[in-house]
Design brief:
- The protein is α+β, with helices and mostly antiparallel strands.
- The chain contains 2 helices and 9 strands, in the order ααβββββββββ.
- It has a single domain, classed as Sandwich (Jelly Rolls), CATH 2.60.120.
- Strands 1, 2, 4, 6, 7 and 9 form a 6-stranded antiparallel β-sheet that branches. It has a 3-stranded antiparallel β-sheet with strand order 3-8-5, with no helix packed on it.
Length: 143
């Protein structure tokens, strides 16, 4: 049984198992994002189940695709650990054109609000960061 375990371990090792520090960073980033999204709940927004986490480097932008529905209002909230600075959240239409949004920005958290007039696929851009590489978490709310 040991050879099978070692073969399985050798196959899984390159997949990049998260360290405890990586998991802690994701948990902290999610806490910050949910704290910000909770403020929008006071205005009747419901936090969507699920979240996205990932690593981000200074000067880079992470893009996520989302399906939005006309008539709804959305807030996209991003959080990171305290060493992150100057996050920005931007929305783009299906052609990659930047959209006019309401924005909120404060150190390790940022948000963008948007009400689409057409249902379809949109893109959420997260970044840039003017600090060292970091972990982010995105959650979004709707009503």
């Amino acid at each position: 049984m040991k050879p099978i375990f070692l073969a399985l371990l050798a196959a899984v090792a390159p997949l990049g198992i998260l360290s405890a520090a990586d998991v802690d960073s994701e948990v902290e980033a999610r806490k910050v994002a949910l704290d910000l999204a909770g403020a929008f709940s006071n205005d009747g927004f419901k936090i969507r189940d699920g979240h996205w986490t990932g690593a981000i480097k200074p000067g880079e932008q992470t893009i996520l695709a989302v399906n939005l529905y006309a008539g709804n209002q959305y807030w996209f909230s991003v959080g990171a650990v305290a060493k992150a600075k100057n996050f920005a959240v931007r929305l783009y239409d299906e052609a990659g054109k930047p959209l006019l949004t309401e924005t909120y920005q404060d150190e390790e958290k940022a948000a963008a609000g948007f009400s689409p007039t057409t249902s379809g696929q949109y893109f959420v851009g997260i970044g840039p960061v003017s600090a060292e590489p970091n972990t982010f978490c995105l959650v979004y709310s709707y009503k």
